What does this fold into?
Amino acid sequence: MLHDHPLAPGPAPVAVRLARLNAAIRSVPEPSIAQAALAAALDPMIAGKVALVSSFGADSIVLLHMVSRINPDLPILFIDTELLFAETLHYQKQVAALLGLQNIHVIRAPREELFTHDPEGLLRHFDPDACCALRKVAPLAQALAGFDGWITGRKRYQAGTRADMPVFETDDKGRVKINPLAHWQPGQAAAYIDTHSLPRHPLVDKGYRSIGCAPCTTPVRAGEDERAGRWRGRGKVECGLHQGAENDTSDDRGQAA
Ligand code: SF4
It folds into this structure.
């Protein structure tokens, strides 16, 4: 039996929040899971204080659009590695203005950290894991410290490492992690963008299907996975933001969706 703790300070225990989130989508038909998961995640009485982490990449506008319809004041964390495409920086501002997103936090590594560990901006060449840790993982960890949960746009089909990803999980800090699009299939995000007449990231038309830092992202060819252009030829498939997140896969829609 789960117990709420209405008089206890702070959010409910993570197991309680995870159970509440799962209950919110348990009888929801698959086409509506994304919206139902998001609505539950944005209810502070269910999930606590959450933020959306967005790269403003190829599919990002889907969740940004859904969030804007529920709560345009939701904190949105945008990691600017200072090695992004100029098109991404422009698109971020365009989308924020279009959707009326009021609460975007631009996250960057501290100057002194960059100066100490990557003074010439070349760390990516000889140690891309360390570069991602410096420019993405550590700044996001710092930014998430004040939140009880975070929302991501990851999908199962994108990589073997995501094949079993549930809609709700916990990270290694005991936060809930919400993946409303976990069950989406290839082409579904593009269809959503078309249906709602939303602007595409300008690099999509140039063959970029997953868009990260400029030095580590290339277009993909026909027949390739959409993330094949990330760290091409480097033997690296994830930036490290999501490592350690799969502590709890108690999402009962995890495999069924
Ligand atoms: S994606 Fe490349 S440039 Fe960006 S943080 Fe990671 S290694 Fe560095």
About this structure: Residues 14-216 form a domain with the Rossmann fold fold (CATH 3.40.50.620).
